[in-house]
Amino acid sequence: MKKLILSLKIVSSFLLGALCTVGILLYLRDITIDPLKYTFKIYHVYFCITMLLLPIFRVTHEKWFNSSEEYVSPRGKALQQHHADIANQYKGGRWSTKGVRVNPYEYTTPYTLSYDSSLDWIYTVVKKICLSLLFILAAPLFYLAEMFLKS
User: Does the CA dihedral 6-7-9-10 come out positive or negative?
Assistant: First the structure.
């Protein structure tokens, strides 16, 4: 099962690398769509080699491409800070409802009505695409960074 998951990760990384490489070649106008034409240049060999190295690099350095922290929207951060401020201002007195204004929604859910989970998914996808593009453009720098971080 682990080999299947690893092979799926490698295949998906290769497809993402191929997509990024095609995007770079379209941007450089080395591939044209209207008259479907491809012009070979020597730096395309570099792009193809880094595209082939991308899946191996992504599997060996998974924490560089995946975010471990969960995305929290500014509204969610403000609510967490508000709860922390209320907890810090608590003086330890008896509970009394006189003069206390209560938000009725505060007790139904501790979360804000936002799209934090969908933004987290979008953030990780955009991060993977951007890092893949950067890797294809500057793969030697990634390998140098790996060497310096290991030593």
Answer: positive
Residues 51-72 pLDDT 10s: 788 888 878 877 777 766 666 7
Per-residue pLDDT at 105 exceeds 80: no
- Whether 38 is covered by a domain: the verdict is yes
Which amino acid is residue 116, in one-letter code? D
Domain count, the chain: 1
Calculate helix-pair angle for 43-60, 139-150, nearest 10 degrees: 40
- 27 located within any domain: yes
Query: 121 lies in which domain range?
Result: 2-70+116-150
Task: Write down the pLDDT at residue 106.
Answer: 59
Q: Higher model confidence: residue 20 or residue 108? A: 20
What are the percentages of helix, strand and coil residues in the chain, rounded to 5?
Answer: 70, 5, 30
Q: Is position 25 within any domain? A: yes
